[in-house]
Amino acid sequence: MSNMSKAARTGRPRNGAAMDDGTEAGGAGAANGAAIGQAEANGVARSGARPRQESAPISRRRLLGTAGAAGAAGLMAGGAAGAGVAAAVDGEPVALATVGSAHIPFEGAHQAGIVQPAQARGHLVAFDLVAGADRKDAAALLRRWSDAVRTMTAADRPSAPAAYDDQVAYDAGPSSLTVTFGFGRSFFGRTGLGSALPEALAPLPDFAGDRLDAARSNGDLWVQIGADDALVAFHALRVLQKAAGGTAAVRWQMNGFNRTPGAAPHPMTGRNLMGQIDGTNNPKPSDPDFARRVFVPAGGSPGWMAGGSYAVVRRIRMLLDDWDHLAVARQEKVIGRRKSDGAPLSGGTEFTPVDLAKFNADGSPAIAGDAHVRVAAPASNGGAAMLRRAFSYHDGIDQDGTPDAGLLFVAWQADPLKGFVPVQRKLDGGDGLSRFLRHESSGLFAVPGGVGRGEYVGQRLLEG
Ligand SMILES: C=CC1=C(C)c2cc3[nH]c(cc4nc(cc5[nH]c(cc1n2)c(C)c5CCC(=O)O)C(CCC(=O)O)=C4C)c(C)c3C=C
Ligand SMILES: [Fe+2]
């Protein structure tokens, strides 16, 4: 097991004192409307679509280094970027840009990375405890991981790079980094915690369309990393993997992405790799039943899961060549929404409620019987609902030329039997979209509630 000090494990440098000048984001925003609402409700500081900035200076040396790499002449050209560089050349620090300075607190009632908008870059990683690792080792690991994440996500970071630090994220701010930890069913047997195993971690049923790879499914521990900068996300992954040494080893890892903040002209719901606007009809924190649907209540069972949630993770491959052969009108019928703007085929605009009872003039249902939104809707599943927070993935092109690409689907709910399971049961046979999908791996994880100052994730389980 690693004996790294906290600073040595987690240190990320900053150069000089914080400059809290209240610099605000300008024109950034790829998060969808629902997600923005979620972020605001969750206390994430925002300016427009993206978080308001904690500003930190960039030194003259670093900025000149950047200018040298990118071409100082180009950077010095007029406009806002030119002004920033000129200030740095004069020795004045400049604020971190919008994306870098966005900061999501690690501590809170719920773990971060559930209700906030999914970031531009994601890593989903499962670890298995190594042979001989016990409950005490697991507790020490969760303590190390929590300390590391507390530091990496902080607006104020250590003043000097730690000896071990790869410095991959040396110049960047927190960039909306979140790290979310969960426990798989197998964790409880391995640590002698069988009596604390939640009923909700019962194995997911087999679905007819599943083509699951066991090596890329489940795992003792699950870590979800999200950040709006790829280097920040990689750095977090690397730090956590190193901190796991001697206690847990990576079982599988998946890398995903979403639209980069600022890539769209205004805040809007993101698109998946089929080109559809995806995430419109997610539960919103302002919904009266949001917390009940997504989080285990205080007094729920088991007690250590209060404020927690259950994550269903599915690597869903998209059969993109088949999909792309469909005319857009057919694609829209499969989903039940327009491709261009996400409006339901029953009429209105993106956020108009879907009218499942509406008929066209020719007597056909406006939303087809096997349309994805009809089959997945709470109204078709006894009210079952989940919060979807996905990343796209692309792992290259197969020998036959087909892309290995799709969705790292992550569904959050207070109880999988009232969320993912009934909906997937229905989709499995009756969804027109399922012809274009292949579920290739699966995991179910108990994600405990958030932590207070000095606590570590899972403490109530591991010390209860
Ligand atoms: C078991 C749950 C679901 C799986 C698996 C799933 C996979 C999946 N979905 C899309 C694309 C879209 N899904 C949309 C809506 C939607 N999907 C689910 C559930 C699962 N999807 C629900 C509950 C809903 C909301 C239904 C409603 O109440 O209206 C949409 C429409 C836009 C939106 O509301 O988000 C799209 C598009 C893909 C590509 C996919 C697997 C790769
Ligand atoms: Fe869906």
UniProtKB/TrEMBL annotation:
Transmembrane segments: none annotated. Residues 270-451 form the Dyp-type peroxidase C-terminal domain. Involved in the recovery of exogenous heme iron. Extracts iron from heme while preserving the protoporphyrin ring intact. This is Deferrochelatase. It catalyses: heme b + 2 H(+) = protoporphyrin IX + Fe(2+). It comes from the Bacteria. GO terms for biological process: iron import into cell. Binds 1 heme b (iron(II)-protoporphyrin IX) group non-covalently per subunit. Residues 111-258 form the Dyp-type peroxidase N-terminal domain. PROSITE patterns: DYP_PEROXIDASE, TAT. SUPFAM superfamilies: Dimeric alpha+beta barrel. Its cofactor is heme b. Belongs to the DyP-type peroxidase family. It is found in: Cell envelope. GO terms for cellular component: cell envelope; cytosol. Residues 1-30 are annotated as: Disordered. Its main location: other. The keyword Signal applies. Its EC number is 1.11.1.-. Keywords: Heme, Iron, Lyase, Metal-binding, Oxidoreductase, Peroxidase, Signal. InterPro entries: Dimeric_a/b-barrel, Dyp_perox_C, Dyp_perox_N, Dyp_peroxidase, EfeB/EfeN, TAT_signal. One of its GO terms (molecular function) is metal ion binding. PANTHER family: DEFERROCHELATASE, DEFERROCHELATASE/PEROXIDASE.
